[in-house]
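Handout, tutorial session.
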Amino acid sequence: EAKQRLTASGTVSEQPNTYEDEITITITDAYGEAETGTHTISLTDVTSGGAGTVTFQETLVGDPVTTIDIESSSMGTFYMAADAVDDYTIRVNTAGLEYDDHPCTIVSGTANRIVVVMPGQTLNEGSSPGYSGVVTDKLAGEEFNISIYVMDANYYVVDYDATETISLSETDLGSSGGQHAQIKVGGGSYSTT
């Protein structure tokens, strides 16, 4: 008899911290034919160097789980979410069956806001206001870099290939003000005084 295996299917392409896309686990034989069984399936993130933490739920609304039960059936379903934009690999596994690794992608939403990160501050995706830290004092006339990010409504950097011109204005009447910065959407660095 051919060895049974687990097969995960379903496209996951959702924003951080959302359980939207369903993943289906199917028990199959070596030839891809569905087979009925009773198993407890472990769900793990096996991403190499992933940016975020992955969690699983058995239903759209529910408590986090690390396993799901398939009882006298050939399939079961679950949902996954991660708290950072990245590509992930989810492993479904149980004793006696060959495991399967399934790719999932967590993506940023559409452009919603511009966030400026000043010297002394760091980008802090996923939380308002999109940066943390205290601005470092600068001497008048001293050049310094600022970083400009285009972010979605949940403060994740939007990543797509485009160039935008952003007008910069300053409230200091003695500054050079009124300059324009051209950045690649998603983020860029700009020097100012």
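The second record follows below. Compare its token runs with those of the first.
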Amino acid sequence: VLEALSAHPCSTLDTLTLNVAQRPGSAYIPYPPASYATCIDHLPVHHLEMKDIFLQPPLKGNLTSLVIRLRIDWIRHKCLTLDDILNVTGHNTRLERLTLTHAIRPQRATRPAAARFVDLPFLKHLDIWQGAEPSAFDLLTHLRFPSHCIEDYKVFDAAVNSAEGLSRALAVALSNCASSPVLESWDVLRVE
């Protein structure tokens, strides 16, 4: 598939879903060669979904939906650092959906290289699941949602494991949604 996308780019491709179904007992599927890392960068894709495969998301500004779900441990070292995510979202500020499931590269907690902020004024759905350092909230401190669009805000973060970390995480989450009607309609706030 990646070879076909590289050799014959489709100028009308709106949605691209890549899913590597790695079943227990099945033959090992090798990771795509580095030559394919940017093969989708030239496509006019608006909706990109990658499951257990990672390619560099396009930086053309076309994306309105970015979904990256990585459940397999061996692929996680290939995914995005905090700086990479800020770069991708900074180039795709029209995102309406951002889903990152174990898609932030495991590393010791660091701050992004530059103290930058990315405004995502059209974001409606945010769903981040992070099982290791860095915390998803290290990313969220650099994202701004300046409009009243947020409808769905879900963050699961196993890296938050202290009272201080939880207080910081709640402060970031509430700050992100301060101007959103989602706070007005919350009936339940669950903290685990």
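Points raised in discussion: The radius of gyration is 17 Å.
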